[in-house]
């Protein structure tokens, strides 16, 4: 079934891979990004699929209203929201992999505010704006991209870890509050460093003296994403899926069951969704 989606960060890196994965699966997608230079390549890669693009700074006042209004104007409704836009270590602390991480007291107010505004506040604003329509229609998917739990609290994670932790915990809360509505909230993560233009290059430079880090290709995000937005995942609510652990040799539901972990900061035991779902 064709669905309509917003993918933030959808013009580059992980977000572009996820947006194109949805398009190639037959969905209509509004890919949102902040660099006009990324539009042409994204549109070419869509290969004639139902892709629209929008360049906007999600930190700007009214930006989230503009994004949702644009999607509704083009598609009539928003059935899937993928919150992938994010400021990573390479933006917050460009010298991290070369010079070592900066401590929290060495960061500027601007860096802290920008990280929170993009990584958490914009995601929350968008989810809050699309959820009522999803609930009214009795079907919807909110998919957030956070990060590894041990990345959130590592030395030097600063506002990046805090902003991703906020989105992680929000996903757990949203899943509980959405239970029984037909709308779900889940997380799809790389599970390791992603081989995106910024992060991959920085991590490779950092590891020149030793072995290269094992990086996750952006396309690895597509199989778990397509599963959680499918009708087969109607009962899957409040989980995190790390793409690097996805076994593509298995049927999608079996692959998902094998790696599903509850969303949230606490280290809960695994909770297969056919035995327990958030209430």
Short description:
With 279 residues, the protein is an alpha/beta fold.
Describe the model:
By secondary structure, the protein is an alpha/beta fold. The chain has a single domain, classed as NAD(P)-binding Rossmann-like Domain (Rossmann fold). The chain has helices spanning 13-24, 39-45, 63-75, 89-92, 96-99, 109-137, 149-152, 158-178, 197-206, 222-228, 252-259, and strands at residues 4-8, 28-33, 51-55, 80-83, 140-144, 183-189, 239-242, 261-262. An 8-stranded mixed sheet has the order 3-2-1-4-5-6-7-8, sandwiched between helices. Strand 1 (4-8), helix 1 and strand 2 form a beta-alpha-beta unit. Helix 1 (13-24) packs across helix 10 and helix 3 packs parallel to helix 6. It is globular, with a radius of gyration of 18 Å. 47% of the residues are buried. The model is unreliable at 202-209 (pLDDT under 50).
| CATH superfamily caption | NAD(P)-binding Rossmann-like Domain
- How many E strands? 8
Low-confidence stretches: 202-209
Highest CATH level, the class? Alpha Beta
Helix content: 40-55%
Spatial order of strands in the largest sheet: 3-2-1-4-5-6-7-8
Approximately what portion of the residues adopt beta-strand conformation?
5-15%
Oligomeric composition of the shown chains: single chain
Helix vs. strand class = alpha/beta
Mean pLDDT, all residues:
87
Number of domains: 1
Which term fits the overall shape? globular
Radius of gyration (CA) equals: 18 Å
In the CATH scheme, what's the topology name?
Answer: Rossmann fold
Instruction: Supply the number of helical segments.
Output: 11
The major pleated sheet works out as: 8 strands, mixed
CATH architecture: 3-Layer(aba) Sandwich
* First-last Cα distance: 28 Å
